[in-house]
Write a structure and sequence with these properties.
313 residues, alpha/beta, 7-stranded mixed β-sheet, 3-stranded antiparallel β-sheet, 11 helices, 10 strands, 42% helix, globular, binds 1,5-di-O-phosphono-alpha-D-ribofuranose
Length: 313
């Protein structure tokens, strides 16, 4: 139980971060927990662990989808249930890894030799696209934003340099200044709603706006488990607001200044040219179909969208 609480704290504090990473980490944590959970109260204990992990960060639906996938374990007795949960966790992790590779292969076709690509924050899916283009011998340069307040842009520039890719770091507010030097934008996703809107790191929607104005294609790289079933029933995605101390120092806070620190924002589908998923390059208008057909939520009633309901078959 201690390990589940520690894992939850790692997600909450962002020691483990990134929508795909937290999903895989939650699946791994549930897998280890399932190995040790008691025979007497297996279901109860699994549900407890699932709830703890789910209540860490509210925005990325990948976390919900990963936990839901594992919690769909079944079996005639506890040992069968245990093995089923472990197997499902492995399946999810495998899905996540395969999807990212596939996204790279599909997305790289949108990047031509000599392109300058802008990216925001630190998305493993978006970087998979850029790195694949580079691996395939295309000359690619990247303009990466700092992504305040958590500076995920620093991770991005390090990872790109390690891959041997040319990269320029800019402040978030310099996006419009540089947008005319850019051939396309590639960002990741924390959640995609049923109507094709993108929820991603704060600042993403401003980049989309600048890109549209400059007629620069705006691409999203997202595994299908980033699509939100709950939004089928009109539920709005909760935007996480984090501690003011991430943004302002104590000397400012003590003046009584109100500080807001939303971690994500919403980009409407009209600003998105294409979403690169592991099942293909799709228009945002297809989000509903991804949720109903690919994730298996066709014909599901709202009250069935709970952790133990039957989806993803
Ligand atoms: P991948 C991150 O969230 C960023 O918003 C990033 O674009 C998104 O997750 C997707 O990342 P945070 O955890 O799943 O840094 O593509 O708040 O790695």
């Amino acid at each position: 139980m201690e390990e589940v609480l520690e894992a939850a704290e790692k997600i909450r504090s962002m020691e483990v971060r990134g929508a795909a990473r937290i999903a895989r980490f939650a699946a791994e944590t549930l897998m280890k927990f399932a190995e040790k959970a008691s025979a007497e109260k297996f279901d109860e204990e699994m549900r407890w662990a699932a709830d703890i992990l789910l209540n860490t960060r509210p925005t990325a639906v990948s976390l919900y989808n990963a936990i839901n996938y594992v919690m769909r374990y079944s079996g005639e007795n506890v040992e069968e249930k245990r093995q089923s949960a472990i197997r499902r966790a492995r399946e999810f992790i495998n899905w996540a890894e395969t999807a990212q590779r596939k996204i790279g292969e599909i997305g790289e076709k949108r990047i031509k030799d000599g392109y300058t690509v802008m990216t925001h924050c630190n998305s493993s899916a978006a970087l998979s696209v850029i790195k694949k283009a580079h691996e395939n011998g295309k000359r690619v340069e990247v303009i990466a934003t700092e992504s305040r307040p958590r500076w995920q842009g620093h991770l991005t520039v390090k990872q790109l340099r390690e891959a041997g890719i040319e990269v320029t770091l800019i402040v978030d507010s310099a996006v419009r200044y540089f947008i005319n030097e850019v051939d396309c934008v590639v960002v990741g996703a924390d959640t995609i709603t049923a109507n094709g809107a993108l929820i991603n790191k704060i600042g993403t929607s401003q980049i989309a706006l600048a890109a549209k104005e400059a007629r620069v294609p705006f691409m999203v790289a997202a595994e299908t488990y980033k699509f939100s079933p709950k939004t089928l029933f009109g539920e709005l995605v909760v935007i996480e607001e984090r501690d003011a101390r991430e943004v302002a120092p104590e000397e400012i806070l003590k003046l009584g200044v109100k500080v807001r620190n939303p971690a994500f924002d919403v980009t409407p589908r009209d600003y998105i040219d294409v979403i690169i998923t592991e099942i293909g390059a799709i228009p945002p208008e297809m989000a509903y179909i991804v949720i109903t057909e690919r994730l298996g939520y066709a014909g599901i009633e709202e009250e069935e969208i709970t952790l133990n309901s039957r989806h993803f078959d």
